[in-house]
Specification:
By secondary structure, the protein is of the alpha+beta class. It has one domain (about 5-205). It is built from 6 helices and 6 strands. α2 (about 30-45) crosses α3, α2 (about 30-45) crosses α4 (about 110-140) and α3 packs parallel to α5. The termini are far apart.
Length: about 240
Amino acid sequence: MANVEPWLAFGIQLQEEEPSGECMLALLDKETCVLFLQQYQEAIAAPNVRVAASLFMKQYARFTAVPLLYSMARYNTAMTVPIEACYFTNERKLAIDKHACKWTFCRSEQRAVWREQTIRQLFGELITPLILFLHEATNVRTDILWENVAVRIRSLYRKAIYIEKEGGIEWQDDIHFLGQAEGQVFHWPHNPLKELLSLGVDHSNRHVRKTCCMNYRLKKETKSTYCNVCPLNQK
């Protein structure tokens, strides 16, 4: 039976009818993408669309990559989500038309094949196309966008392995696969996560980012600060 708990736990809204909001498929158009980012820029008080694009990708990865990878490792199930089923709401949440999605389940002897197919679909359908269009629309560097995805993924696995001490070998196997897979799995010339998923020896061993997500540039009432793992904060 399909388990929707991981998706709901990460703030996903699974809806019976077509959700309201901006369809993610529409963002694969440069003009629409720019207009959306201008609105997002205003909503989060970002200084420009480059910062908005970076921080949107960080939030989007939490709504897409994280629940799917969690569901894979914890329950050996996955929800296949086409990009046209995803809507970004006015409340800055991700709503999904669940009738456009389907569930897949793996058998233990076929898990490696199922995992690769599931991850290919995740990146090919939801992640990589959006990275390309955010870059095209704003000229934000793709390595920043990829690391924004990586920090969400790394946080998930660190918490599961070192803090919650998940017993299943799937957690270790899955993050190893993500770090070693060929670029074609991500629909990219090379593996964009290869150097970004190191967990360290425990949850207190922070992995300093290679790029800055530009979160410190948001206009805040208090003085803006760098993230704890920001490379600009290590000097």
